[in-house]
Amino acid sequence: MDLVPALEEPLKKVLGPPTAKVMAEHLGLHTVGDLLHHYPRRYEERGQLTHLADLPMDEHVTVVAQVADARLHTFASARAPRGKGQRLEVTITDGSGRLQLVFFGNGVHKPHKDLLPGTRAMFSGKVSLFNRRLQLAHPAYELLRGDTDETVETWAGALIPIYPATAKLESWKIGKAIQTVLPSAREAVDPLPDSLREGRGLLSLPEALLKIHRPHTKADIDGARARLKWDEAFVLQVALARRRHADAQLPAVPRRPAPDGLLSAFDDRLPFTLTEGQQKVSQEIFDDLATEHPMHRLLQGEVGSGKTMVALRAMLAVVDAGGQAAMLAPTEVLAQQHHRSIVEMMGELAEGGMLGGVEHATKVVLLTGSMGAAGRRQALLDLVTGEAGIVIGTHALIEDKVQFHDLGLVVVDEQHRFGVEQRDALRGKGKQPPHLLVMTATPIPRTVAMTVFGDLETSVLDQLPAGRSPIASHVVPAADKPHFLARAWQRVREEVEGGHQAYVVCPRIGDEEDGPGKAKKKSPEDEAEKRPPLAVLDVADQLAKGPLQGLQVEVLHGRMPPDDKDAVMRRFAAGDTDVLVATTVIEVGVNVPNATAMVIMDADRFGVSQLHQLRGRVGRGSAPGLCLLVTEMPEAGPARQRLNAVAATLDGFELSRIDLEQRREGDVLGQAQSGARSSLRVLAVIEDEDVIAEARQEAAQVVASDPELAAYPGLRTALDALLDEEREQYLEKG
């Protein structure tokens, strides 16, 4: 890549090895270009100083303030018994509050000389509490002196960039390093096509880099950020558009269902009519399956909206057309559950080649990593001969040994658990690329769908099938109101006495060996944070001997042998077990319509979307569902606000927005495919919906007219950098 030599210069050549080492290890910055793209988190105005009143405890902060007074004290200590110990106490103020700085021992001389009353400086350190007052001990500082030719007004109004920093490298040191490399910004090759940039009135990339690091006005910052957001959105959308374009060039076998075949026979058996949404989405899928290019579709559906039914009809259409369909599930419990429910829904149509089978019937096989050798051999044989039209499995489906007779459709359940590479590995098992349907029950805001799943067309199921019951959700504050927890167990008993069943969900299993001296996370949010999360094995034991004594209580978790897990699920599904105490292994796909109540212990330890997923396991029949979120967190804290939000709405899309606003986008974007999605620095997926939507349109036009990007060398360079990073981070994650 000889286009940007100045920006590819390693930092150790420019800044020296020690600084470069800290930047690489603590901030992931290796080249001049990396450093130029390390943008300020915010800006301080010298005239309007930081709010000292709002400093967070235990965090590394940078403040701009004025020295109010400085006093040197002497004291006696073990090290200085003759009263020669020295302590310098400096009080700084910003108008909103005061903060004490302390320096000890030999470290007092320089600050005593520098920090005279009236001096302004930037101070950086960790906020701690001493004698009930906030203080910074031995902070690093940088004096702010106006240059002689600078007027007081320009000095006071100057914007000081505050960078994401670490204890090893303060913000102003990063700022100085950036000033060293800033001249190289003029050589940055612009990835945006001129017509796009000019048409939208955006700054050039060199100008944006200069203005974000050295702004004169707030308008400079706004202009630079607007431009850099476009870079991130556009380059990412071009990568996705090229993937869509390449996929559209692939040949695929059109799969049209036979007029009176398996699909018709299945539809005739259904004891209910499909919802309008299911019919509409099914039609979109059938239209895609009939084309000569592979379908790439994302099916988003609220918990319980009937996605499995839509996926099954798509699989039956492909079997009808002479192909095979594979469904990939993230866990064995879920693969077994899907297999059971699909065989039940199909009845005699799933008994192809067996005595009870009927005309058009096919075979539905299960393939998981822990199957016995004989069962596995038979399943592999049924796939390679084409005897099995439908296979449901875990990652075991991706292994080299698995061969298909004619793979026509791949259905991936819960996409966020699979990377693009795994999807591709399964797709590579068709003679020609198979059609692809990706399902997720995690509602994804439109912008995230465009960013993370941008290589897929999207269908949304947002109606619940008839007969689905509402779910009432309540927060149970166990620490503030212990009688609420007692009442929760009473409610579980009432549900069981009414002929129903219940789940109790815990964050961990309970047979883990905690490493010696594991650091416990300190948190102002009470003692609740300090104890380990509640465990399935302990809770099940306490309930069986205590509040749920006399009821049939069983446990389910991920480390149980697969046969045991399956047996537990069968007993629960059959109604033999009253209460199932489980980990999140029941989070997706588990379907027991008679289960009406769920108690989630330590609910604050789960994410918003995860709680919504878990809650979707109840209220799946005609009786109303109840979900109780148990927490020991104090009422005013953010954890309780999160739980209140979950209790207040059943709208998964609304909750996913809340979730995304509360977490870093990288978490949401990173888990979906791989690293590059989390390399967003200025683009905020929720706030910048317009930019992402427009960038997607522009990217599609550019790729349609020039798929190889021959006319856009700068864009190609930026794309190589993005995809390199993606590959690298994917490999690092193993």
Put simply, the count of helices is 26
Beta strand count: 21
Helix content: 25-40%
Q: Outline the low-pLDDT stretches.
A: 148-153, 513-529, 664-678, 727-734
Strand order in space, largest sheet? 11-12-10-13-14-9-15
| Biggest sheet character | 7 strands, parallel
- SS-derived structural category: alpha/beta
In short:
This protein is of the alpha/beta class and 734 residues long. α11 runs antiparallel to α13 (307-320), α12 (276-289) packs parallel to α13 and α14 crosses α20.
What does this structure look like?
With 734 residues, the protein is an alpha/beta fold. Helix content is 39%, strand content 18%. The chain has 26 helices and 21 strands. The strands form 4 sheets. The chain has a 7-stranded parallel sheet, sandwiched between helices. A 6-stranded parallel sheet has the order 16-21-20-17-19-18, with helices on both faces. Helix 11 runs antiparallel to helix 13 (307-320). The protein starts with a helix and ends with a helix. The model is unreliable at 148-153, 513-529, 664-678 and 727-734 (pLDDT under 50).
